[in-house]
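Predict the 3D structure for this chain.
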Amino acid sequence: MRITSGGEGVREGPRRPVLIATKLYPPAVRDQTVPRERLTARLGSGSGLRLSLVACPAGFGKTTLLASWREAEAIRRPVAWLTVDEGDNDPVVFWSHVIEALGRACPQIGESVSPELAGAAPVVGVVLPRLVNVLAGQGPVTLILDDFHRLLAGAARDSVAWFVDHAPPAFQLVLSTRTEPALRLAALRAHGDLLELRAGDLRFTAGEAGAFLNGRLGLGLAPGDVGDLVERTQGWPAGLYLAALSLQGAADRPALIRSFGASSRPVADFLVTEVLEAHDRPVQELMVRCSVLERLCGPLCDAVLEQHDSGAVLDALSHTNLFLVPLDDERGWYRFHPLFAQLLRVELEQREPGTAPELHRRAAAWHRDHGTAGEAIRHAITAGAYAEAAGQIEACWFSYVNTARHATVLAWLQGFPEEILRRDVRLLLVKAWVLSARARREEAAEAIAAAERLGDPGAGPLPDGFSSAEASLTMLRAVFPWGDLGAQLTNGRRAAELEGPGSPWRPMACWTTGMSLYYRGEFAEAGEWFAEAGALAPASGQWVIAAASLAYRSLIAAEQGRIHEQHLLAGQAADLMREHGTEELIGAVPLALGVSLAARGRPAEALPLLERAIGVLLRTRGEPTGVANALLCQAQVLRTLGEHERSDASIAEARVILESCPDPGILAGRLTAIERSARAHAGSTYQELTQQELRVLKLLSSDLSEREIARELDVSHNTIHSHIGAIYRKLGISSRAGSLERARELGLL
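Done. Predicted structure below.
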């Protein structure tokens, strides 16, 4: 289910998450970097394998190695880069960035699969199969996912496991991680589909250490001293760099080498004394205080430090300190090496205990003012500024849910202490909406019950545009009735009362009321509600509701025998759906198109559309009534095509679904009629009517004359007369009244 509304002046929300461009840039290869041909050659041999893995703790130079390899490899093939962060635990955010990265490296991919798709369709069900198919036609392509350990257990990591299993042979996936990834490594290893570089592989050899210390840094160490240092650091690249910083100012370098690693001082002491304290006090304060930031830029650091000119300091630091890494070509954004950042945060707590929350608050305010809501909320929660975080979540949750970023919103909510969450009716309502959209009914019910116990706070309109907590709760029950059409109608009418003209939620109230009336057989009134929903929705960019309303008006026209209008409305719904890129979100539109084609005697063309409608409804966790209705439509078309076994299977599936519905409306009777018709056909010599004859039969049940039926179907009177004769003959009846009675016995009407 895609929620489509919002606060004052808010449209449906962005089609995709805001992409952080700096995540798509590999770090620049610095002059001090030593070529490591033995490792790059092994990475090159991973082409054709399902997975290449670089796994070892911090400080082993994973990122540096991959950046160097990418620079050389990009001459021969497209190589995409993505630095993973905590926000990527939402699969929509993760795959939006992956698709953007691949599109930048290989523009043909971007032409076929855009990042918008990740927010508009199920990831594993639609996005990844389409991406795999596109990659299969691209030839050799490489994707590097740096810091993969930041992807925690959940849907995003599971989707990567699916991708590893299904990626085409010419595609190379490279992961760098500090921890063992929860992927099928044993199976890949057993099948020879895994390339592995571990800590032992990335340790510096004496030759590489000499090239770094003497060739790049010009320390002039004797071979024996280099070998001794490699032994003392065990080839750990970060340790060698720390030693190099110490050696640059040492008068007796051999003596310092002999003491390095033999001292009781931990590596952290070296980082403090040789890296941090090598700078003056203002620069130290910038590094220590800004360690609370995942990524840094001059203006953001200015806000956190409450000073000016941080950008110039960052630029100077990035040229002299290997632990500050530029994230873009313009050197506007940076990040600290993870090992160094961890040290700086410890140092911050030692130097300025209790300062971190205030620094996070300043960062939250900067991100809020600059439109990066996700980072603003994360900083606010980390700072313990729960009221501010709650206000931002309440204002923006619908735009995240509209692009299927449910995991992001739920992660925010999990960051709140339970005692705060259970006392905030607005956050409980957000939780209930998101859980309902994920079809987690029991958890949603718990959140709804908790919100009900608190009652309406009486503070007027909510930040998300609802007129009250009651309105949000009522709308929630109307949108997710779980098969109880009577309750849906009651809640839909009440929601429409609470969200009157001018409310951004009014189109949804009209739409859900129309849905309940349609499935209760009150077609005329349902059409009025759908017409209002369709008229209001475009003003607030609610294209899902606009297209779905047109689709249901088409289905209503079919029920009322207005065949020309049915076809016209279905076509308008399809045009609107394609224009606004909602193909993967609306099951009602392909359903209406399929029913329209079947009514025009084209069942073979109708069937794929009906199958697609069912697939979309199931993938988007559609209401059971909608799924059952589509299955019954499919069953009728299958029977027309002579596929009786498949038709019976669809009928059986619809029965199971409808039996779970507290109030399925007219669908229970429709199911019974179709089952009776199937049994009658199976036990008689009855010759089935064509789709055109069924259309004529339906119109014979109205008050229209033969000439009026001909005009409605846009055919000649003689053609209609011939169809009626065929109907009488096939039904074994010689009159209009008799044919209608026989048709009802067979379940045709």
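Strands lie at 51-55, 79-83, 141-146, 171-177, 194-197, 296-297, 324-326, 333-336.
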